[in-house]
Design goal:
Order of helices and strands: HHEEEEEHEHEEEEEHEEEHEEHEHEEH
Strand content: 25-35%
Radius of gyration: 24 Å
Strand order of the largest sheet: 1-2-6-3-7-18
Largest sheet: 6 strands, mixed
Structural class: alpha+beta
Bound molecules: zinc ion
Length: about 400
């Protein structure tokens, strides 16, 4: 027996507005996760709000919501935290008002990524309204309030928490804003790794008139940085662009023009593809620095390893759903910064797809209402295809 119309309709615009009005600047929740949980409970989801803590870090609210106890578990992953809006006067509309103007919804989180969360919930509501009690699979949402900053008390811990309950995820779509120029033009199937190097070079202080009596740390630093930039790390792989090194700062802070500095410091960022692990990058860096010679300290901070989910079930379904709604064939990309997909891909196959990232983290972040409708339709098609 099939019962239709069992799930209340959810309007993606309305839900996105309500989420934006909760000013959940990372790591504050400001009511965003309870609001989302209430909407999901209305659709029959069992919601667990989980707070994680860590010494020295703010406690963070997370949400695992699941509807259905059996069948394959399709998961949507995302975050309700947002980056700070910056100066209010730089925005043409209040960043936390969720106002609509000229067919666009404005606010911090509109594209990154409260809008996509609202679209997925609206898609689930429409899917359940049609399938009703006949649906015997599982849909889950893995939502954190700790993605934009430390990401210590967020998705990584929530995945372990879900696994410890004996639950598994069978496929996942991460709703980060991946579209570049038009909704549907890009899916992410992996991400480059990222590490920061803090290089301190030690020399011997002296008079600039007697350089032979000193060891100029500034000169050594220049030579070391030149060595790091002399040749590319690689020339790319089948799904990744070439790895890159970017110097972000060079600091000596020497106020005196006739003193040779004893120490010099630089910070650089390495974005590396799937040919490298962070350990291999570090070994490469140390070899290059050792060849120049001299005393130095190199501190490495790893933000994330590179990963690739080879094109397969999830990216295929997404591409089909996108083509149905937009007519576009999405590029399968690995560009951009890190995301929580770097944790989730160890648990199940995944791909990332969401709104346009043109205004993410910017003043006047906004989304076309038409894109919210189209993304809702795409996510709805994903559910139809996955549970066909
Ligand atoms: Zn995001």
């Amino acid at each position: 027996m099939e019962t239709r119309g069992t799930a209340p309709a959810i309007d993606a615009v309305d839900l996105a507005q309500r989420l934006i009005r909760a000013p959940s600047v990372t790591p504050d929740d400001a009511g965003a996760i309870p609001l989302l949980a209430a909407a999901l409970e209305g659709l029959g989801f069992a919601c667990s709000t989980v707070e994680f803590t860590e010494p020295g870090a703010a406690p963070v609210l997370n949400l695992y919501a699941r509807r259905g106890k059996a069948g394959r578990n399709f998961c949507f992953a995302g975050h309700t935290d947002v980056v700070p809006p910056g100066r209010r006067e730089d925005w043409s509309l209040d960043p936390f008002a969720g106002a609509v103007r000229d067919g666009k919804l404005y606010g911090r989180g509109a594209v990154d990524m409260k809008g996509a969360i609202a679209c997925f919930v609206a898609a689930v509501a429409a899917f359940l309204a049609e399938r009703g009690q006949a649906f015997d699979g599982s849909i889950s949402l893995l939502i954190t309030g700790d993605e934009e900053a430390a990401a210590i008390n967020g998705t990584r811990k929530l995945l372990e928490w879900v696994a410890a309950r004996g639950e598994r995820l069978d496929a996942c779509v991460v709703g980060e804003p991946t579209s570049a120029d038009r909704l549907g033009d890009m899916i992410k199937i992996g991400r480059r790794g990222s590490l920061n190097g803090i290089l301190t070079v030690h020399g011997v202080q002296g008079h600039t008139a007697y350089p032979h009596l000193a060891d100029n740390a500034a000169h050594r630093l220049v030579a070391m940085l030149a060595a790091l930039l002399a040749a590319p790390l690689d020339d790319g792989t089948s799904h990744f662009p070439a790895s890159t090194i970017a110097i972000s700062t060079i600091d000596i802070g020497n106020p005196t023009s006739n003193v040779i500095p004893a120490a010099a410091r630089a910070v650089f960022n390495v974005r590396f593809n799937d040919r490298w692990t962070s350990a291999a990058v570090e070994a490469w860096l140390r070899q290059a620095l050792d060849r120049v010679g001299g005393r130095y300290d190199l501190e490495i901070k790893v933000s994330g390893e590179s990963f690739l989910v080879p094109p397969g079930a999830v990216s295929d379904i997404l591409a089909t759903a996108i083509a149905r709604v937009t007519g576009l064939t999405p590029a399968l990309s690995t560009t951009g910064g890190t995301s929580d997909a770097r944790f989730i891909h160890r648990f199940c196959p995944l791909a990332e797809f969401g709104l346009l990232n043109l205004t993410a983290h910017k003043v006047d972040e906004c989304v076309d209402l038409a894109d919210l409708a189209a993304l809702t339709a795409i996510y709805r098609n994903v559910l139809d295809l996955y549970f066909a």
